[in-house]
Structure of Hexosyltransferase:
Amino acid sequence: MGLSRPHKAGNGVSTRWVLGLCIASFILGVLVVNRFWAIPDPVTMDREASSVEKHESRPLHPIDNCEKKDASFQTGDILSQVSQTHDVIMTLDKTISSLEMQLAASRASKVNNEEGSPIVTKSGSEQFKERQKVFFVMGIITAFSSRKRRESIRETWMPRGEGLRKLETDKGIIIRFVIGHSATPGGVLDRAIDAENEQNKDFLRLNHIEGYHELSSKTQIYFSTAAAKWDADFYIKVDDDVHINLGMVGSTLARHRSKPRVYIGCMKSGPVLSQKGIKYHEPEYWKFGEDGNKYFRHATGQIYVLSKDLATYISVNRHILHKYANEDVSLGSWFIGLDVEHIDDRSLCCATPPDCEWKAQAGNPCAASFDWSCSGICKSVERMEEVHQRCGEGDEAIWHTSF
């Protein structure tokens, strides 16, 4: 009873043995860890960390630069593609315009042949080859009774004879008096024009019966005929009682040469006159809304300019373009809804002296002069020489002007 026995665990294993096994296991674990998972030297760790940082930092800058270069390349590539697309569109636009011009010339030639135009025409294919490339065509709208007006123009601002031919070859400027034929072709009136043309060689004869109320139709046929005969950048309509400075006209048009669809003139918007029996009465006034309304913006009829595409448009569609009572309104209506640039150029509607003189002295010489009160130069036969002397740019100006 005096000595106590060693304490045993519940399973019969001595506590001392359990303690010994725990210590032995701990020592064995430390040895294994030290063997396979040694603690690295601090210096070595710093070197390895530095090496890793350098290794990781190296590709960062090239990647960043590559991304920037890729973005720059992609941006430049997109801009290049946009530019190329724009060039292609412009080329297609010019090609379409050229094809439409050829179609217009073919149609005009066919109509002239079928309807018996006084102009002797050739086949469409031959006409394409012979169509002269020029800067602008100026058609001076005239009448059988306007012989003296035509002479006043020939004696002032319009070259004649060899000067007219030189203007065509050297400057690419075509000027013609535009007239149709009488209701009795081959009669006295037509023979008089034929004789005048034989002497001056400055007429463009239209397949059109002359008449004051047919000016809208005459305008359509003029642009169609001119487009079929000459390949011009611009086509101009001017009345035979207006003074023109050709050099100024050429300089003005040269600024708009790169534009595809331009309509140039002195833009206005007058009232729609519904009352019968008055000048400029509009029988179809109801189409423009309520009484007292104004017309849409359009160029005054004394002079206006159309670019090639617009003259082609008229030529191709002239059989379906509606004609109002007033020719300038009709022309303006044909471009409603089209992508057309209206250019309001006040140098094309200067008044006669002293207005044109003041503007010339101020450095704004006039391209065209007339009196608003007379819708042309009042008493133009008597006054054209005076206007030319006081408002003219000089007879040599056209030859020294570059286009």
Q: What stands out?
A: The chain has one domain: 110-400. Strands lie at 132-141, 173-181, 203-209, 230-239, 243-244, 262-268, 298-307, 341-344, 368-369. The two ends are 141 Å apart (CA to CA).
